[in-house]
Amino acid sequence: MVALAPSLLSASFATLGETVASFEGADAASRPDLLHFDLMDGHFVPNLTFGTQIMKDLRACTTIPFDAHLMVENPERYFDACAKAQVERVTIHAEATTHLPRLLAQIREQGMVAGVALNPATPLETLQWVKQDLQFLLVMGVNPGFSGQAFLPRTLEKVAAARELLPQTCAIGVDGGVATNNAAELVRAGASMLVAGSSLFDGGEPLDALQALRKAAKTTED
Ligand code: DX5
Ligand code: ZN
User: Fold this and answer.
1) Model pLDDT for residues 52-63, shown as the tens digit of each residue
2) How many angstroms separate the CA atoms of 168 and 55, rounded?
3) 142 lines ligand 1 (CB under 6 A)
4) Is the Cβ–Cβ distance between 16 and 8 less than 8 Å?
5) Domain ranges of the chain
6) Is the pLDDT of residue 221 over 60?
7) Which of 71, 106, 105, 63 is nearest to 88 (CA)?
8) Is the pLDDT of residue 130 over 80?
9) What is the 37 CA–ligand 2 centroid distance (Å)?
């Protein structure tokens, strides 16, 4: 079954604690599998969001695993803080380092799952050296930096090609532009995890939207 991860970047920062508490108390159909945190530094991407403290503080509000997406230069600076906030998985961008295997090993040494994110224009060949023991690939469906951007349709073929390339032990997630209208085809192409921001938070009740996304992501293979 596909794992769903709300991107809290799209939620109101004024009421994040309440939002997370409502996810924590939700029934199985609308409970997220992970909570996705978009850390941005204004250098790797043209936007600033939040640092690691937010995960540390929210850790007390929920047992839902945390998924940290580091859109920053020098991502290794934040691994210790992620470990202290009991982050389950840390995903770094291949474009942000010239030492991808070393950084992935550092994440795993801290007891966290290590993921690689690829911007839309970054080819899968970038994974050649790390693909054998890669645990997670995050395929970006938009150029990262902001919620609410339009999904790039060529993401679908990239997900399918990644599924061919990577061992079955490597999960594939998609982040950016995910909504009820593309969830099923992304899953059919090989995605086992979907991040969703604006499609969950920009309408009515996020718990209802998550339930609708879970339904839409169901394929006949499920
Ligand atoms: C984009 C972030 C995403 C974003 C998703 O740079 O990595 O996680 O918040 O938002 P939507 O689903 O609105 O594209
Ligand atoms: Zn993200």
Assistant:
1) 999 999 999 999
2) 30
3) yes
4) yes
5) 3-218
6) no
7) 63
8) yes
9) 7
Residues measured by CB to lie within 5 Å of ligand 2, the ion: 38, 69, 175
Cross-strand pairs, 5: 195
- Token couple for 153: 């349709």
Look at residues 163, 101, 160 and name the one whose alpha carbon lies nearest to residue 129.
Answer: 101
**pLDDT score, position 219:** 77
Q: How far is CA 10 from the centre of its chain?
A: 13
Given the candidates 2.120.10.30, 3.20.20.370, 1.10.3720.10, 3.20.20.70, the CATH classification of the domain at 3-218 is 3.20.20.70
Instruction: Collect all residues with Cβ–Cβ distance below 8 Å to 220 and sequence separation of at least 6.
Output: none
Q: Name which of 11, 5, 6 is nearest 202 in CA terms.
A: 11
Q: Whose CA is nearest to atom 4 of ligand 1?
A: 147
Ligand 1 in reach of 144 Cβ (< 6 A):
yes
Return left, alpha or beta for 148; rule: phi > 0 is left, psi -120 to 50 is alpha, else beta.
Answer: left
Q: Are 208 and 20 in contact (CB under 8 A)?
A: no
Which strands sit side by side in the sheet containing 66-71, from one edge to the other?
3-6, 193-196, 171-175, 136-140, 113-118, 89-93, 66-71, 35-40
